[in-house]
Amino acid sequence: MTLTPKKAQDSLIQMTELVLPNDTNTFGNLMGGRLMYWMDIAAALSCMKHCAAPVVTASVDNISFETPIKLGNVVHIEAKVTRAFNTSMEVHMKVWGEDPVMQYRYKSNEAFMTFVALDPNGNSRPVPPITPSSDDEIKLFEGALRRRQLRLILGGKMKPADANELRALFFEQS
Ligand SMILES: CC(C)(COP(=O)(O)OP(=O)(O)OC[C@H]1O[C@@H](n2cnc3c(N)ncnc32)[C@H](O)[C@@H]1OP(=O)(O)O)[C@@H](O)C(=O)NCCC(=O)NCCS
């Protein structure tokens, strides 16, 4: 069965949260775990919007917290599906903090997660392909194959020898 492709832009989710005392560590900064929880939800919503099915988190790529987000500041998360494979989707997230009084935004971090769509029996099911449009979407779409190979190797699901696109980055093809 061939599924109708959908635009990457149509999977966009924008989430806004306020950092409250219970979200912070003893330095008054947003805890990493709380941010990852919100990112997980935004990413899952984006994938569900794309595939119209329940999804589970299959993997989370490494996350570097570049700038702390302060108590009383606002968290903005944008999540968009970069590429759909067979039953899995890679989703890209951008996170900003915002000081609502001084009215400026600052970048916090970016991350990739992978979700798998499930059928009513809990088995993985095919998802529609993604059509990228903007330059950014095309760049993310093209890089998704390599990132997928890297995470499948790290997860013990792919042999390095089978990761052709990833190998092409490091070795000249004969
Ligand atoms: C994710 C899960 C559905 C994969 O099931 P599986 O039977 O191991 O996977 P399969 O080999 O059938 O592969 C299914 C898809 O998952 C992808 N996948 C599996 N492991 C992955 C990983 N570590 N990273 C990225 N993708 C992964 C496969 O590439 C495949 O994608 P494709 O169909 O687009 O090629 C299963 O491991 C699961 O249910 N895990 C728990 C999910 C969960 O509870 N998440 C919440 C956090 S605890």
From TrEMBL:
<dbReference type="GO" id="GO:0005737">
    <property type="term" value="C:cytoplasm"/>
</dbReference>
<dbReference type="InterPro" id="IPR029069">
    <property type="entry name" value="HotDog_dom_sf"/>
</dbReference>
<protein>
    <submittedName>
        <fullName>Acyl-CoA thioesterase</fullName>
    </submittedName>
</protein>
<dbReference type="GO" id="GO:0006637">
    <property type="term" value="P:acyl-CoA metabolic process"/>
</dbReference>
<comment type="similarity">
    <text>Belongs to the acyl coenzyme A hydrolase family.</text>
</comment>
<dbReference type="Pfam" id="PF03061">
    <property type="entry name" value="4HBT"/>
</dbReference>
<dbReference type="InterPro" id="IPR040170">
    <property type="entry name" value="Cytosol_ACT"/>
</dbReference>
<dbReference type="InterPro" id="IPR033120">
    <property type="entry name" value="HOTDOG_ACOT"/>
</dbReference>
<feature type="domain" description="HotDog ACOT-type">
    <location>
        <begin position="9"/>
        <end position="121"/>
    </location>
</feature>
<dbReference type="InterPro" id="IPR006683">
    <property type="entry name" value="Thioestr_dom"/>
</dbReference>
<dbReference type="GO" id="GO:0052816">
    <property type="term" value="F:long-chain fatty acyl-CoA hydrolase activity"/>
</dbReference>
<keyword id="KW-0378">Hydrolase</keyword>
